């Protein structure tokens, strides 16, 4: 029976590691769409679906968004370079940093971890908040956005490269942020 809100257990997910501002599992920021497909070829047989756009007065379409629906990944590109990785809370790979799982977790628990981590670091300006009080870490390059799972919210992290911190809310398109 199909369960709309079925959340995969951590041991049923791919296990990835975050290297802040550099990579999320096998995905390296700044690579082209075909390089993403190559990096994920050993992880999934699913093909990357692209959303293309064409600028005014140009004849060439460019990739703005990629998706691996079954794997639970949405990817955002700027100038056809990987600039954002969004992990689906229900079925996406589990991403670890400092031994902490970031995907599909209780938001308040991870927010407290981020607060404790920020207090232990110098300077204390490490924690920031997006709209609706969604926390982010300026040293990890992650925003712990949320996604609905039935009557609950779970973490749906959005990973970005360092240059995104200059204007984080506008670095990725609006649809990259919370889809509760």
Structure characterization notes:
With 180 residues, the chain is α+β, with helices and mostly antiparallel strands. The protein has three helices and 13 strands. It has helices spanning 33-40, 107-119, 168-171; strands at residues 15-19, 23-24, 27-28, 49-53, 62-68, 73-78, 81-87, 94-97, 100-101, 127-129, 135-137, 142-149, 152-159. Strands 4-5-6-7-13-12-11-10 form an eight-stranded antiparallel β-sheet, with helices on one face. Strands 3-2-1-8-9 form a five-stranded mixed β-sheet. It is globular. The mean pLDDT is 89.
Secondary-structure element pattern, one letter each: EEEHEEEEEEHEEEEH
Kindly estimate the percentage of residues that lie in beta strands according to DSSP.
Answer: 25-35%
Strand order within the widest beta sheet: 4-5-6-7-13-12-11-10
Helix-strand category: alpha+beta
Name the shape in a single word.
globular
Distance between the termini: 23 Å
Tally of separate helices = 3
Helical coverage, percent range: 10-25%
Largest sheet: 8 strands, antiparallel
> What's the oligomerization state?
single chain
Q: Taking all residues together, what is the mean pLDDT? A: 89
Uncertain stretches: none
Q: How many strands?
A: 13
Compact summary:
With 180 residues, the chain is α+β, with helices and mostly antiparallel strands. Helix content is 14%, strand content 34%. A hairpin with a 2-residue loop joins strand 8 and strand 9.
């Amino acid at each position: 029976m199909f369960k709309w809100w079925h959340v995969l257990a951590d041991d049923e997910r791919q296990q990835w590691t975050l290297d802040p501002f550099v990579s999320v599992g096998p995905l390296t920021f700044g690579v082209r769409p075909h390089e993403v497909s190559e990096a994920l070829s050993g992880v999934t047989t699913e093909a990357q679906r692209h959303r293309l756009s064409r600028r005014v007065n140009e004849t060439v379409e460019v990739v703005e968004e990629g998706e691996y629906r079954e794997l639970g990944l949405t990817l955002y590109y700027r100038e056809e370079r990987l600039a954002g990785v969004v992990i689906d809370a229900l079925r996406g790979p589990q991403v670890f940093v400092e031994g902490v799982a970031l995907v599909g977790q209780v938001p308040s628990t991870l927010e407290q971890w981020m607060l404790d981590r920020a207090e232990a670091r110098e300077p204390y300006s490490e924690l920031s908040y997006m709209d609706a009080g969604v926390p982010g870490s300026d040293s990890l390059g992650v925003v712990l956005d949320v996604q609905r799972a039935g009557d609950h919210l779970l973490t749906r992290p959005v990973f970005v490269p360092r240059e995104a911190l200059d204007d984080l809310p506008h670095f990725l398109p609006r649809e990259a942020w919370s889809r509760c």
